[in-house]
Each structure stands twice: as structure tokens, then as C-alpha cells.
User: Fold these one by one.
Assistant:
Number 1:
Amino acid sequence: MTHSELFSVSYLDARDRFIEALTPAGFAHESHTMEGPGGENNLLRAPGGETLTIDVGIRRGTSNEKAIVISSGLHGIEGFFGSAVQLGLLTDARWCDAAANHTIIFVHALNPYGFAWKRRANEDNVDLNRSFFRAGEPRPKTIEDFHAFVDILCPKSPPPRVDLSPLIAVWHIARQGFGKLKRTIPVGQYDYPCCIFYGGSGPSKTQTILESNAGRWAGDAAEIQLIDLHTGLGPWGTYKILLGEDKDRHELDVTRNRFGADHVEDPAVDQEAGKVFYPARGTFLPWFKTLFPGRTCRAALAEFGTYSNLHVLQSLRAEHRAHHYGDPDGKHAWTKTELLEMFAPASPAWRERVITGAKEIFHQAIA
């Protein structure tokens, strides 16, 4: 199977291929349905009416020392890439044999609704990587400067084929600087449920499933390493390993030693233009670590570059407008096609490069 062939044509295709690959590789399978309001009487569905699930593959290691968690699709449409990586590892006998000492946990499609419907957000328009807070922890206030961008980011109208938003964005960058915009727009907002980067008002179903099961998945492992797979930031086909802002110096040093200093950005200093990292609230990584008190838990995000930040943002904006105010299944279906290209480019060269890079990461993770 070539690296391009690891990419599936739909969420259902990806799920079926993932599940089929588990047993030959020695993994047990469990499935978690996504319930909407009303519980089991209102399960979330794919476009064809099929039930949506988060699927998990678990294989216990010969040692209890370390568990590696490999998750995909937190930002739904990015699951096309993440699922391809997971399938590539499951069908790589050399990697599976080398990983036999560790407990390996694949979590497929953390946001199955976004994956199935080709959205970045979930069924409630929530950007899940802005929504993870501890029980009782209040949502932060939306950054004041964000309010000025709402009408530009999320117009209440269908998307036109010819869009002047790039010109508007260039004007704002020239006026305020890219660094300020990077610390304002994608950070996470909690006042506009129908706008992008919305962090929600409470725990998502995804968060509830993880909180209820992650400890059991990891078993008695003394050390847990999470690697969450993403695309859309950084130069074409390259990757960076990003840590949460809660990281300490020791965690940064360990991660750089494990994955290579050139691939790991330091959030404390790498926030200027040209760097992949940007600050955000309610992110997955620091919350995940709280699930394992008294144990060593390291969490990292593997980000693979595609198109420019401006191009990606423009596509997110168009798909958002089609979803809320247009006809995404008819005349505005082009917004889904374009968004998919932003996060899982069709280029065979890109797919070859990113799968090769991802396998490099996971060989280093088990070394």
C-alpha cells in the first residue's frame, strides 16, 4: 500500500479500514457512540444516516512501563490525515513488532461529526481544541480585540466564489502586525457560538468519553505519552512537535531529545511570525495530563504543514458561512472540497512526505 492509498475517501471508509486493521495487528477494539441531546434516542449521524463513533484500538505491551496514545481527528476534517497515519502504523509490521514492549492506544476520530461532515468544529460548532477545561473551571473571557474581528471572520451570509477577505486580512496584518493577530484570532473565543474558534459552554461528548476511559486504556503504565495528530499549520509537508504552555523545562528537554530539537518549538520563545506555535486556551494537551495524577504524562501535538495561514483561514471562513447561512450540500459544496484540500492535500508528494515524517515520529516515540 502506498502512502497516498492510506488516505480514505470518507469518515466511514476511514473507520472501516481502521477497525479492519486492528485484529491482524493484535489490537482489541472498542467503540463509543456519540450521543446528542436526548442520549441514546438521538445518536449523531453521518451524512448517510450511519451512527458516528470514536473507535479505540488497544494492545498491551510486554512491559507496564509506558503507554503511547495516538489520537486523530480532534479537528474533524484533519482526521483524514490522522486516520491515514494510524492505518499506516497498524499495517507496518516492523513498527508493530518494535512497539511490542509498550502499551499502544489508537484513538480514532475524536471528533467524528467534523470528520464525517467535513468540518473542523463538532456538532455544536465547537472547536474542541479550545474546549477542554476541568470540572468547575470557568471559561475565560474572550480577548477584547477579538470582538472587532467577528463581522469580518463570520459574516452572516453565504460565501461568494470571489471573496475580498484576503485583501481585508492583509490590511489588518499591515495595520496591527501578524504577531498580534496570531495572539487574538485563533486563541479561542466564548461569546459567539456561530463563529469560528468557539470554545463552547461546557464539556463536549468527546471530553466525557476521554475522561471516563483514558485511565483504563492506559492500564498501569507508569509513563504515558500522548501524540495528537494535526494538519494546517507550518510550511508545506514539514512538521513540528508542539507542547502545551504548561510544559516545564524538563519536559521540553525530554521531548527535544526524543524527537529532535529542530522539530520541537518552545512555546515560551517561539511565538513570532514564521513559527508554528500560537497561544490558545482550553487546549487538549494540558487537560489530558490531569487524567493521570501521580504518573508521568507527557503530551505533544504533531502539526504538519499545508497551505499558508491566510489561505487556511479563508477556507475555514467560507465553509463556516456555507454551514450556517448557505447550502453546503448544493451550490456551496465547493467549500467542503476546498477545506479538505487545506487539511489533507491531494498531492501525492505531500502525502508521501507527511506519512514518512509521521512514521519517523512514532519510531522515535518507541525507541
Note: The first helix runs from residue 11 to 22.
Number 2:
Amino acid sequence: MVKILALNLRKVVNEYLVANPDSMFTARQIAEYIFSKYPQECEEKRKSSNAKVIVLDSDTALIQQFVAEIGSQRPRLQKANPSIKVTDSRPRLYYFSTKSDDDEITELEKSSSDIKDDSSNRLKEYELYPMLAVYLSSEYGIYTKRIDEKKSSNMQGYKGNHWLFPDVVAMENLSKEWHKEVSDTAKLNSDKLIRLWSFEVKTKLNRSNVREAYFQAVSNSSWANFGYLVASDIGDSTLKELRILYGLHGIGFIKLNIENPPESEILIPAKEKFDVDWNTANRLTKENKDFVDFVKNVRQFYQTGDIKISDWDKVDA
């Protein structure tokens, strides 16, 4: 019985995912399902273990063994059923979907606008912005501001501002732990006291939209010291493509943890540009009121050394 279960682990996983279409599960959640669904097989598998191979002397050890086996059989699982998909994020998420990569992105884009629509349980893109702000504030102490493209003047005509505006911008105070005399001296010497960040946010990245999203970030983050693409969900093989593009253009990638935003992480650090491209920043300022306010906040910091928290995005604890 143990050998039958071991040989058919892929079948068990496949059946479970197919029975729960479009629902995502970690390998541990699937392993816990197997443990509860097949108690007799699990007990026999435990009994058959020995010191020569592996000792499954507890429920925790047995479940962990299933987790490892599911991970190791991932390529075969997907080869046997191409509709089984696995995210690149950690922990990996396994799910069954008949939608193509294009269909997944199209569906998300329809439901991810800034228009609040409670008819879908999916997170909208605008719901990710505060989560990103929490992560950036808690991890790096930087101040963020949402840039609403709808507030643009569109003086350039139809699609004149295409890929011009990032979703979120931020200011990092490099002198926050400096003595006042040091920061004042650095300011007089025109040394850099801040770094400016730019973020393009997507609900999901997969092979269908990763290149377009990346070059959108390249376009609207060219003015900043750091440019990042951000996503809460990343499809199989997408991270590899992001690393290739990073080598050419230097835009980093942040995996947003929607369950616990402070535990989000930079998977690909952006390459720093020492100087801000103020000509490009000026174009954004002419077109968008939110970006005007952002530049005003930066100017105020340089003039006074103070940061008025109310001028930046609110960060909920």
C-alpha cells in the first residue's frame, strides 16, 4: 500500500487540485490533505520507514516528507497535466486552471482597476498600494505617495502619457541618523541626502505579461534612483525572465506578501542610478498633480530638513 501511494502521489495531488479549480495551495496544505484523507496509507508509510533511509517517527515528519516529495515531483506533475500551474513565489503555490496565461491576466486587469467592485473576491491592484507602503515603511523607513494617473492633464493627447507614470513613488532620507551639523554640511556641499524610488505594481505576473510589465516599469521609473516592479503573485518561470531583463535594464522586483506585508521581500535588488533625471521628473510634474505634490515634499525636506507625515501616504500599523 505504501508503494502504491508513493507511486501515485502525483495522481493524488492532481485529483485534489482538479477538484478545486483556480484555488491555490502550498505543498504543505496539500500534504496535510493527504495525511487526513489517507490515514491507513500514511500509517503504513510511517511503519515502513527505517534508519537506513528516513525515519518518519511523528506526524510532523511524515507531512514534511510529503511536502518534499510534492516539491521534487513538480516538473512531472506539470508535464502530466499542463493545466497544473505553480507560482515562482516562495512558498510555491499549486493550482489547476484551464485559463491560459493571457486569460489570467485579462481577467485580473478587468477586476484590478481603481474602481471599487465588490463583486469579485480577488484583490484589486489599488488594494496592493497600501500594503507596499507598509512594507517600505517598516523595512526601509521610506515615505511613499500614490500617483493617480487619472489626475493627469493629458496635454500630450491620446496615449501621450502611455507608460509615463509609476503607481507609487517614495523618498528615502539618507541623513535621518546623522548629526544636524553633518546633514547641514552635506546640504551646503550639495551631497545627496535622499534617494527617490519608483514602483510599478501588478496583481500578477506570468509569461503572458512579464515583459510588457517590466518595460512599463523601465519607462516610468527612468527618472528615479531606484525602479521596481512589484507583484503579489508570480507565475512559473517568470522570475527567471525577470532576472534576464534585470541584467539589461536594472529594474528590481519586489514580491509582495499580501498576508503579512512587512514580510514582503526584494527578490531582485534594483541597480542604483546616482543622479535623478530631473528632465523626466519635470515632464511628470507638468502632467500630474500628485507628482507635483511629491516634488513639493522633496523640496520641503531639502529646505527644512523636516518630513511632514501627513503629506505622505498613511501607513497603517
Note: The radius of gyration is 24 Å.
